[in-house]
Write a sequence for this structure.
């Protein structure tokens, strides 16, 4: 069926755009770079019989560290009708180049590798929205890893954002990877719920990010 | 009146100047006494307006060069009186670019009322935990009845940028009242009622216990569960959509419409004054939206076209400041379905213009918006 033009301000394309941005954060995020959705410019939707709903999106990304650093993107998001547990399919194209973060990544890598004691931190950002500069790469890693969690758990009726890192603890490894155990809070925009989520994140400058473990946690009363 | 700056070059010049000053009784600013006028030293004299030309002619005649130090003394005086008065209107040293705990906001409201003839503080009601809810009325004294614009902030505890905006808003109005004709004209015809924090208990809880708390602190289920979402608790299609009847949910709508004292306090006042209220604004975060009624249905309100037009204009003006883009539209279409919101309720009882503002940002920081964004957020929203 033909693609129907939707106002970019509408809730459904807005959720699809948030999902696409999270997916891009997962695929392209590094300790020095956190792609985030700035604005949705255009949205079309196709209802494909027996398959699902497909959104064609044009949007602008900014960086969580540099709001003025923007880049245009297009993406296709397909929410599957059948299997409710299947993550949506996302394909994207970024116009131009994202900032190269090799130097910052290596600096961060060496800094953590040379720590005597495992890194531990809480509340990033803090209640006032502040992030100490040395915690920015920790936040960026969580931003990217949460993109994976968000992607895997999204459907047309959800819109997730990373609200805060409650707790992070480095896990010492004997190999060259860095490992961090995160407890994050996701904000789900439709239900307004704050959902604690645990993620184990592996990272290496050359090998990228891997979420080896993740699980939804109970809300403590 | 003008102030002239002269450096006499010779003793003869000094003598002439002394003669001029004493004959015309000119006001010596520097030095203070005639006999202290010396060659080679600064002389500042204030010349009354009707004598300015005469004095300048005399100086020219005697080849005494001068510079105009102050072109219009009255202008300068007016400016500094203005500055002094506007600085007195707002509490000294209150930092509007940082977040304040409730104790400081209470203090600030008292100070604001004390310092300004335009502001009066009013009791609205009490919270669940028996704290006082106050609103501020900004009114230009006049004997003609005025329409009201109502703005409330902080229905949801974690949305700290909203109370910060309410405080900023009041500061801006008071600080610029004397100098800004638009504001004065505005207040000639309208009264502003501003409620900086509705959900006082929740706000305090978000400072002391759980930063991302949203609801009020009403105990349910024998104290094993807390909090009603005040913005699902109003009597507008209450309990019909986008809510939960379970206290553990963030969108728990309470045990009935207006079950919460905070809701009742707001509803009572607005109901009382509804025939005078032109516009109801409620400020939230985040998401960057200007939302129009309704959340409970996609059927547009009767004056939808006008509502949208005004909102589009507001969003455009907002974007001009820092390029921030806000989405405009009815809640049910651009956000989600929800019943029992204050905005829907205000419109349903007859208030023509009713909007929810969702301030910055888009999710990068969400509820924990850093303080360096308070100023740009508030500036663009003004």
């Amino acid at each position: 069926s033909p693609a129907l033009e939707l106002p970019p301000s509408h809730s459904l394309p807005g959720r699809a755009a948030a999902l696409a941005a999270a997916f891009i954060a997962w695929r392209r995020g590094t300790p020095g770079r956190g792609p985030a959705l700035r604005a949705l410019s255009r949205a079309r939707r196709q209802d494909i019989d027996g398959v699902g709903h497909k959104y064609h999106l044009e949007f602008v990304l900014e960086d969580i560290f540099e709001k003025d650093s923007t880049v245009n993107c297009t993406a296709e998001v397909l929410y599957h009708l059948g299997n409710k547990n299947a993550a949506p399919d996302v394909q994207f194209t970024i116009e131009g180049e994202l900032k190269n973060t090799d130097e910052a990544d290596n600096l961060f890598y060496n800094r953590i590798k040379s720590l005597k004691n495992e890194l531990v931190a809480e509340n990033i950002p803090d209640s006032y929205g502040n992030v100490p500069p040395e915690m920015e790469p920790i936040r960026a890693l969580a931003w990217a890893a949460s993109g994976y969690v968000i992607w895997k758990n999204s459907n047309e009726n959800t819109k997730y954002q990373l609200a805060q890192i409650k707790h992070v603890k480095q896990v010492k490894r004997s190999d060259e990877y860095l490992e961090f155990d995160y407890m994050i809070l996701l904000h789900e925009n439709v239900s307004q719920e704050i959902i604690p989520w645990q993620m184990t994140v592996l990272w290496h400058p050359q090998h990228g990010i891997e979420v080896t473990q993740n699980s939804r946690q109970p809300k403590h009363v | 009146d003008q102030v002239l700056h002269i450096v006499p070059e010779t003793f003869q010049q000094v003598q002439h100047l002394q003669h001029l000053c004493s004959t015309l009784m000119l006001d010596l600013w520097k030095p203070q006494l005639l006999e202290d006028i010396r060659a080679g030293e600064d002389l500042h004299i204030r010349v009354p307006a009707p004598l300015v030309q005469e004095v300048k002619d005399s100086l020219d005649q005697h080849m005494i060069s001068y510079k105009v130090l102050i072109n219009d003394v009255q202008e300068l005086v007016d400016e500094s009186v203005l500055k002094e008065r506007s600085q007195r209107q707002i509490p000294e040293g209150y930092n509007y670019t940082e977040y304040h705990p409730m104790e400081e906001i209470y203090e600030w409201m008292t100070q604001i009322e004390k310092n300004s003839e335009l502001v009066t503080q009013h009791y609205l009601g009490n919270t669940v935990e028996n704290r006082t809810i106050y609103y501020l009325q900004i009114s230009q004294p006049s004997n003609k009845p005025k329409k009201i614009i109502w703005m409330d902030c902080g229905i949801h505890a974690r949305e700290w940028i909203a109370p910060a905006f309410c405080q900023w808003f009041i500061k801006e109005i008071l600080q610029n009242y004397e100098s800004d004709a638009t504001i004065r004209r505005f207040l000639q015809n309208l009264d502003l009622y501003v409620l900086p924090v509705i959900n006082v208990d929740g706000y305090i809880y978000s400072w002391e216990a759980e930063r991302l708390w949203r609801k009020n602190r009403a105990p349910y289920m024998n104290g094993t569960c807390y909090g009603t979402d005040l913005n699902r608790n109003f009597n507008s299609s209450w309990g019909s959509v986008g809510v939960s009847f379970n206290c553990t949910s963030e969108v728990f709508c309470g045990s009935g419409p207006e079950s919460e004292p905070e809701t009742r306090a707001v509803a009572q006042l607005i109901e009382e004054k509804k025939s005078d209220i032109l516009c109801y604004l409620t400020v939230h975060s985040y998401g960057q939206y200007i939302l129009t009624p309704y959340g409970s249905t996609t059927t547009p309100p009767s004056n939808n076209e006008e509502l949208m037009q005004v909102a589009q204009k507001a969003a455009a003006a907002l974007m001009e400041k820092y390029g921030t883009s806000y989405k405009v539209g009815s809640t049910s279409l651009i956000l989600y379905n929800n019943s029992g919101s204050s905005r829907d309720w205000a419109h349903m009882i007859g208030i023509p213009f009713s909007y929810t503002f969702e301030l910055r940002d888009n999710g990068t920081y969400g509820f924990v918006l850093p303080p360096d964004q308070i100023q740009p957020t508030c500036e663009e929203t003004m």
Remarks:
- Helices of chain A lie at 11-28, 102-113, 136-153.
- DSSP finds three helices and ten strands in chain A.
